[in-house]
Amino acid sequence: MDKDGFEANDISMGRLPQNLKERFQLVEVDDPRVAIALFHIDTDGFGPGMKPLTYNEVRIPCLKKEGEKTNKIVKEHKVQWQTYGCSIMMDKWTAKNEKVIINVLVNSPRGSVFLESYDASDSSTNSNKMFNLFEKTLLKIGKENVVQIVIDNASENKKAGDILKGVFLKHFWTPCVAHCINFDVWSHFQAIKIHSYFSQRPLLLNITRRYTNQRNLGKSVKTRFTTAIMTLHSFYLQKKNLRTLFMSTGWSKIIYAKEALGEEVASYIVGPYFLNDTVQALKVCNPLLTVLRLVDGERKPPMGYIYEAMDRAKEAIKKAFDKDKRKYESF
Fold first, then answer.
1. Measured distance CA(88)–CA(212) in Å, rounded
2. Pick from 247, 261, 256: nearest CA to 206
3. For the chain, domain boundaries
4. Pick from 41, 166, 242, 257: most CB atoms within 10 A?
5. Do residues 131 and 70 lie in contact, with contact meaning Cβ atoms separated by under 8 Å?
6. How far is CA 322 from CA 168, 236, 273, 283, 325, in A?
7. Quick check: helix, strand or coil at residue 174?
8. What value does the mean pLDDT of the chain take?
9. How distant is the alpha carbon of residue 137 from its chain centre?
């Protein structure tokens, strides 16, 4: 193998501890054959010159090369930021250790690129601290390059967005489309809230299978909203079986039947409103699901299509309710 071939193979091996989020000690093994197996590298035809990387080779030169490659990619994106402008996207999530992490990404016609992460455990609910984070990121990228900051519409972010508009007059805060749809729809429909009751009780899901011909009610997919809608569709298809479950002696004997929330759920599903609420929720949510798929798609940036998609969703919702304004106005 020539020098370039060995170097390319070294890069492949050096990436494994990073891709698997493993420690660099992964390469500290006594038997080279074990190391090669761990790295899943095909050594056929490489000849006797093929050898696994050492701990220091992975930790220093390979990591340095990966850093240089990443910086080169970011520089290519920065050219687009300066030419066409960009949007800062902040994704807030909670880690297993209960820390609140905000991932910062930058979107432009070139695509999206990860910039950095912040530990926001002590600032995620403070509007002034969130504004400081907005400002810090804005200045780092260059305020002349930034069009908007996109983050969920939590109250502290709204306040921080208002401060932002007062300080940087040409910039504005935009709520995340997916978060807005999630919040609005979940607050409207009792049927969607029932989904949470089932999803948080695996034992109840197992018991339910006895009444649904072993069909699962839960449909775990990419987003929380989509999961809820797919599950609602299952509720609709299994409406008779669900009522049979909650009217059975088997339900009355399990621990969930004695919970206040369990009694409320059972009463709702057996009652007259469950079917109507489920149908209404599906009429509203199915068109919105199309919008979310556009937003979550990775083939092309959705910004140029999102407003038309929302208009089409509104028209589809009106049509589903026979254009009776009283039925869809609240949505």
1. 46
2. 256
3. 3-77, 85-175, 182-328
4. 242
5. no
6. 45, 21, 20, 11, 9
7. strand
8. 77
9. 22
